Design the sequence.
């Protein structure tokens, strides 16, 4: 959430940033926040003035009583009671303005960094790096949904029977491949210094507001209405919320957590050929990495996270590219974001497998995630960062498609100890 100070320090820069994200009505929203804040300030000034009056009058009551001027003292008491009522009304006006301001700020996205390119959609993202090798597939190569059927790895129809479209059932070596990837990604994260967390996969509304899924993506989340709980779209939500309303000593930063969870997304409105098979699911497995850091060090943390995700794709021997997202394609909460994509030779298209974002103070301000400076002991707002490391469905799709051979599906060397074989036959 943006802060009033951030807006007052450079209102025009904030508006330009929101316009880079193609946030409609950016100027009107910011002017609205400031107008409400002025109402809050006016009410606060009135409360302060009334309190000062009451304090002065209260002092005079005692003096009048000592002088035997009881009637005059009683008159002033009545005047004080009237001022109390006025102060109460102004306090209510102030609180109402604060809540109105908060609700409006919750609906305003984060301001992107200057490094974020201009652009409206995915076609405007900037490719900053490519890696891996060119894939040579056998003649008549199959897409992963056909390979999954051929080798009895994933049953999409059975998932429809049990739950509905977008809930596949993994079978035999398909299930083992899932587990192999989960353990490989977790082991790599632990080796990189991340502490593993096993969080709940349902969260309360406060957690959704804390990381910015609410109110922005309410329609994309599965909502358990009776208990007012939400199925998580990513482990970012419960893991980051561990630090909601927490003050961390600077010496303990950066905090580095990782978590494997199932993730749930309604994906309302998704249709067409690009949602076939594993391309877009309602439930999927993902390993998430989360960092809490100081503003001075968060850029370095971001670069380390990007290097970690890149190393995973290199060890899986997959062709990949890294994109810096343009303003119009970034999430509501991110200040800067890089996407990782792997190439599916069978589908002839790039598949997104990770987004690695720095949220600056945006999430931390909503969460009240703060740290105590080692230098001056002052309390400051932290920075939060997160990334997929990695999401499994499209990784599985790319592995099946890019490593298919006439003899079977080859297993990358890094995964062989986890799979217990070098080929799916």
Sequence:
């Amino acid at each position: 959430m943006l802060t009033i100070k951030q807006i007052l320090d450079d209102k025009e820069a904030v508006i330009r940033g929101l316009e880079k994200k193609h946030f409609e009505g950016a100027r009107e929203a910011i002017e609205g926040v400031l107008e409400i804040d002025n109402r809050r300030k006016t009410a606060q000034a009135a409360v302060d003035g009334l309190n000062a009056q009451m304090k002065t009058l209260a002092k005079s009551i005692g003096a009048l009583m000592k002088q035997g001027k009881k009637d005059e003292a009683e008159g002033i008491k009545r005047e004080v009671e009237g001022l109390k009522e006025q102060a109460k009304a102004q306090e209510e006006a102030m609180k109402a303005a604060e809540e109105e301001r908060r609700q409006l700020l919750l609906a305003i996205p984060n301001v992107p960094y200057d490094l974020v390119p201009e652009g409206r959609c995915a076609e405007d993202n900037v490719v900053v790096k490519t890696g891996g090798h060119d894939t040579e597939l056998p003649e008549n190569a199959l897409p992963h949904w056909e390979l999954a059927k051929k080798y009895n790895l994933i049953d999409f129809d059975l998932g429809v029977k049990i739950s509905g479209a977008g809930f596949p059932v993994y079978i035999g070596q398909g299930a083992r491949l899932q587990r192999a990837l989960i353990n490989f990604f977790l082991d790599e994260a632990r080796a990189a210094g991340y502490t593993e967390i096993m969080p709940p996969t349902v969260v309360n509304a406060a957690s959704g507001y804390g990381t910015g899924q609410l109110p922005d993506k309410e329609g994309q989340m599965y909502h358990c209405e009776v208990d007012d709980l939400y199925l998580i779209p990513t482990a970012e939500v419960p893991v980051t919320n561990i630090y909601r309303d927490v003050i961390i000593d600077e010496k303990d930063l950066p905090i580095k957590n990782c978590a494997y969870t199932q993730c749930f997304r309604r994906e309302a409105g998704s249709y067409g050929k690009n949602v076939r098979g594993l391309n877009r699911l309602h439930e999927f497995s993902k390993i998430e990495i989360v960092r809490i850091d100081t503003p001075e060090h968060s850029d370095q943390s971001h670069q380390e996270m990007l290097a970690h995700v890149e190393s995973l794709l290199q060890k899986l021997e997959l062709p990949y590219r890294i994109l810096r997202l343009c303003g119009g394609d970034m999430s509501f909460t991110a200040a800067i974001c890089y996407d990782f994509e792997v190439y599916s030779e069978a589908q002839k298209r790039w598949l997104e497998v990770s987004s690695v974002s720095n949220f600056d103070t945006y999430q931390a301000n909503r969460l009240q995630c703060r740290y105590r400076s080692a230098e001056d002991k002052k309390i400051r707002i932290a920075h939060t960062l997160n990334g997929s490391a990695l999401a499994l469905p499209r990784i599985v799709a790319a592995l099946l498609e890019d490593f298919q051979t006439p003899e079977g599906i080859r297993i990358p060397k890094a995964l062989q100890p986890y799979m217990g074989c070098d080929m799916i036959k």
Residues 153 and 171 are 5 Å apart (CA to CA). The longest helix spans residues 26-66.
